[in-house]
């Protein structure tokens, strides 16, 4: 039951402390290391092929040294267990995601739209200056659903499969995708390898998350939305997660949004109901109920192993 105990301790620490301050967060230090490699390898004057090769090399150069240290840890069980717990704690962010979402909820409840825009801007990549209250609600709920998969369930999945190495591999690759996966002039080809690697690691966890959302909400609507709408979204992994999550909550999500100064006509998806302020809390509850379900399934599997 060491696996289950390590996961429970990591989740408990996350719920108690939330994320570490950015200055000391390993992902912040990793991001600085990745930026340094990017400065040396990214050259938009190169051919498409060479930019893709440079992007592939950048992913390898950035990831390998960051993961090798796990292989150097002495095989002393108390130390290994401690590292397991700390690594998983640093890789998940359920409490932080909930806190950010509730900060938006609080601002909306106080009818402070400027503050709500500011708070939601911390968890979404779209521009928030012109958002309406309805836009803010949808963006917050979408972020809880998608980041629940990216920052909670996928690292937990890979921790179960490959231990702390798997959790770190996933979170680091996800960070590289967030840095280099943009389809703009700078990263379109250089970021190709990072985006595809993240898609690969996310494929199965995303669908398990979508299935979990469906089981814990309005299952019929969730499955219908997933089956008929997931392909409308750009991301092959966010599509199932957000459509199933929106259907589970019976909420209409998506719609036009502004990114980098351009209005993007995103599709509508999910259920029939327009989100209200309280639905932000419902999305957070769905994420935590899903986490509880995963802990029960992992614990049962660990006990039978």
From TrEMBL:
Entry-linked PANTHER family: COBALAMIN BIOSYNTHESIS PROTEIN CBIB (PTHR34308)
NCBIfam families: cobal_cbiB
Family: Belongs to the CobD/CbiB family.
Subcellular location, record wording: Cell membrane
Transmembrane segments: 53-72, 152-170
Keyword tags: Cell membrane, Cobalamin biosynthesis, Membrane, Transmembrane, Transmembrane helix
A Pfam family it matches: CobD_Cbib
UniProt name for this protein: Cobalamin biosynthesis protein CobD
Protein's gene: cbiB
Task of the protein: Converts cobyric acid to cobinamide by the addition of aminopropanol on the F carboxylic group.
Organism: Methylomonas defluvii
């Amino acid at each position: 039951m060491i696996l289950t105990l390590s996961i429970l301790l990591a989740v408990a620490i996350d719920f108690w402390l939330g994320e570490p301050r950015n200055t000391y967060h390993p992902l912040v230090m990793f991001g600085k290391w990745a930026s340094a490699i990017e400065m040396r390898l990214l050259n938009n004057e190169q051919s498409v092929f060479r930019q893709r090769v440079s992007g592939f090399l950048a992913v390898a150069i950035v990831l390998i040294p960051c993961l090798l240290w796990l292989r150097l840890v002495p095989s002393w069980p108390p130390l290994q267990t401690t590292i397991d717990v700390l690594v998983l704690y640093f890789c998940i962010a359920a409490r932080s995601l909930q806190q950010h979402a509730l900060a938006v909820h609080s601002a909306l409840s106080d009818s402070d739209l400027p503050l709500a825009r500011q708070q939601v801007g911390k968890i979404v990549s779209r521009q928030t200056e012109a958002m309406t209250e309805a836009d803010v609600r949808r963006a917050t709920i979408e972020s809880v659903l998608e980041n629940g998969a990216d920052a909670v369930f996928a690292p937990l999945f890979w921790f179960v499969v490959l231990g702390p190495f798997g959790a770190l591999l996933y979170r680091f690759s996800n960070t590289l995708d967030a840095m280099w996966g943009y389809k703009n002039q700078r990263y379109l080809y250089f970021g190709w390898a990072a985006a595809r690697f993240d898609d690969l690691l996310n494929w199965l966890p995303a669908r398990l998350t979508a299935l979990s959302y469906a089981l814990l909400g309005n299952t019929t609507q969730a499955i219908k939305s997933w089956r008929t709408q997931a392909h409308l979204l750009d991301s092959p992994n966010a599509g199932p997660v957000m459509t199933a999550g929106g259907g589970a909550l019976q909420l209409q999500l998506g719609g036009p949004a502004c990114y980098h100064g351009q209005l993007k006509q995103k599709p509508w998806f999910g259920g029939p109901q327009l989100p209200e302020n309280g639905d932000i809390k419902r999305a957070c509850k769905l994420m935590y109920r899903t986490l509880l379900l995963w802990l029960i399934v992992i614990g049962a599997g660990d006990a039978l192993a």
